[in-house]
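Why this split exists: single-chain examples teach little about how molecules sit against one another. For that reason, every record in the complexes split bundles all components of an assembly together and asks for one structure covering all of them. Below is a record exactly as it appears in the raw files.
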Amino acid sequence: MPSREVTVAVLGATGAVGEQILRNLEERSIPIKELRLLASARSAGKKVRFKGEEVEVQEATPESFEGVDIALFSAGGGVSEKFAPEAVKRGAVVVDNTNAFRMDPEVPLVVPEVNGDQIRHHKGIIANPNCSTIQMVVALKPLFDRFGFDRVIVSTYQAVSGSGAQAMEELTEQSRAALEGRQGPREIMPVGKLSKHYPIAFNTIPQCDVAQDNGYTLEEMKMIRETKKIFDDESIGVTATCVRVPVFRGHSESVYVELKEEFDLAEVRQILKEGEGIILQDDIANQEYPMPLDTSGRDEVFVGRVRKDTVNSRGLNLWVVSDNLLKGAATNAVQIAEKLVSQDSQ
Amino acid sequence: MPSREVTVAVLGATGAVGEQILRNLEERSIPIKELRLLASARSAGKKVRFKGEEVEVQEATPESFEGVDIALFSAGGGVSEKFAPEAVKRGAVVVDNTNAFRMDPEVPLVVPEVNGDQIRHHKGIIANPNCSTIQMVVALKPLFDRFGFDRVIVSTYQAVSGSGAQAMEELTEQSRAALEGRQGPREIMPVGKLSKHYPIAFNTIPQCDVAQDNGYTLEEMKMIRETKKIFDDESIGVTATCVRVPVFRGHSESVYVELKEEFDLAEVRQILKEGEGIILQDDIANQEYPMPLDTSGRDEVFVGRVRKDTVNSRGLNLWVVSDNLLKGAATNAVQIAEKLVSQDSQ
């Protein structure tokens, strides 16, 4: 049956993720009655194109959410903490792309391909997981269903767009400067709010997000905690090393997973090939494997380099690449919104 | 006692590694009577500076090795296969930086900090391990001695200079082109001799070296096989994912090692700090960790991000960075040559 038309608000509409949310809303199936673009006072007044028309960005206030059905938030954790309760109070369902509510036991943490059924349990807020978590759990889901697994050891190769549009600009300027033998700006990477900044151009930085007391970074702990919550299995042991690399868009991940039983590699490939939201690109003999430049602008999760550990017959290596701004953020949020709308109209 | 003076030949003197071998020979302690710079016919006649003087590069022939004591080879596997027997026949000891003889049971595969005692067992050829193996085994050696380990799961972030000077030029040109919105040259990466070439600028490529029948790449199999041989322990299970990243110099590695017993993290840090050839740079709270831009031009192996697995109390994460042209190639070869000279003079 046709879904009812909804009023959608996008908070953080001028950011790197907000822009991709708008592209997604243009392309996907949510019937939009009214679209409200919200941002900080600094961005208010900007004009943004949506379906061929110019829409003016308004400063977010609690009243901005009056009459809103679905509010997509991607303006930072502090902004979410401030405005999510206001939006919920006014009857909106918030799909929050920040870290603010992800581990709140009252808030479903949803990747539609993995645990889309959790959406119906929301109490006003649904959290979108961290980008590096989303693509990993999509790749692991069909293996979890068929074999189960105990342990995941993941090393990431994360694009700078995970730190926003300014970080992309910094990589551009640093790269240009390095090629000309100059030093470029160092103001954002690895973490804008920290005191030390390092060049990312032609470098790797083994820090995404702030340090935690246990020696891990917050990004690493997000992957560890969120994976357990999404699979609803506290026994899953994840260890992660999160690294920034000089790529604009598309996170890559080297994922080692120890399945609960021995497996046939051909069966694993078939399962991945049929997995929801996955494109298997796995033929090293013909140099076929996922790379971030190819997956940029795509909504799916790409999996390749599927290999059995040479020693441990339950150990499986995967190379997982996805567009961190799309499936890692905007696409996943809009997919949740779509499910909300279709549930609502059933 | 003072070592005797030796005649040294460098085959591949004009390549990316050859150049670093010359810088190393200038800085280190080998007393050189005569230096012969050898290369293919194409590079013959070039002049190279050594200790302030110009030395002319000669075309390598079997006769080039007459009177040579130590020959340092880094001109590709095929060249080594052709000339190593000729050099040995004429009394030289060959330190070979290619893959040609590494797994030959008659040839010691040496990283001085790890198994320098193997040098004395040579029969004319000593192999220098693969760059990505060398830095990993240096970092693991003190842990191997204290705890032992069964399993290593490594993901690499490898610099383009591992594919030679032309690959560095390609990254430069591709980066410049991408920043100007053009497509740059695509002739070398990921593997020059294969048919498909992909951009490495602002990308990651999960292929270093050619594919093997088991789905691994040769680079990955080198790490697996060489680690067992260097530690002289066939029971060590290594699985590797080798990835090229847009970095000019310096390989990074995310290394997960499962020790044979539970460990105290403070002890592990102390052991690494005292480890031969290692610089521990591990303080995430103060944003201190190794990065390739900082380690470029340094001879040591840098270790940071030392963390215990949150689940497996025998699991240890390390971030290991080293200059692939130095400790990964030239420095290790010259260190072997130094040991040869000092053994000889004892």
